[in-house]
Amino acid sequence: MTISRFFAASLATLLLASPVLAEEIGSVDTVFKMFGPDHKIVVEAFDDPDVKNVTCYISRAKTGGIKGGLGLAEDTADAAISCQQVGPVTLSDAIANGKAQGEVVFKKRTSLVFKKLQVVRFFDQKRHALIYLSYSDRVVEGSPKNALSAVPIMPWRE
Q: From which residue to which does the signal peptide run (predicted)?
C-alpha cells in the first residue's frame, strides 16, 4: 500500500468514526479576528446512543481565524460537559452488568487529523449512576484536561 493510499484510508477512517452527531445549540465569540471567523465557545447537545433519554450538553473552544475557517486550526483541549435524564431510562443488559465500561458515546475532531474530543460512559452500579467523562486526545500526546458529569438513574415521574 502506498503512503498516499494509507494516508487517505486513515483520514477517511478518522472522519467517519464519529459514533454520534451533535446538534449545535449556540455559541459565543471570545476573540475578534480581523480575517476569518472569531474564536468562540460552542455549545452542542447529543443523546447517548445506547441509553434512551439521557442527553449531554458539551461546551468546547473553537479556534477561528483563517486557519479555523479553513478547518486547519487545532482547537484547545478545553471542554465542559453536563448530562441529564430527560425521560424514563432503560439500561441495556451490558451496561447494567458493568460489561460496557468506558464506551465512547461521542467523538468530535478538533484538528485536521490527529486530535479529537471524546466522551466515554461508565456505569456506577453501587450508586446507580451513569458517569460521562469528556477529554481530548491526540495520536502522539493527549491532554489531562477533562470534565465529568453524573446522571443518577431514578424512577421517572410524569
A: 1-22
The number of CA neighbours under 13 Å toward the Cβ of 144 is 0
pTM of the model: 0.76
CA 47/CA 55 separation, integer angstroms = 4
Q: What is the pLDDT along the chain (158 residues), one digit of tens a residue?
A: 555 554 444 444 444 444 568 899 998 988 887 887 777 899 999 999 999 999 999 998 888 877 777 777 777 778 899 999 999 998 888 898 888 899 999 998 777 667 888 999 999 999 999 999 999 887 667 678 899 999 999 876 66
Task: Tell me the C-alpha to C-alpha distance, in Å, between residue 53 and each of 8, 23, 46, 83, 135.
Answer: 37, 16, 11, 10, 23
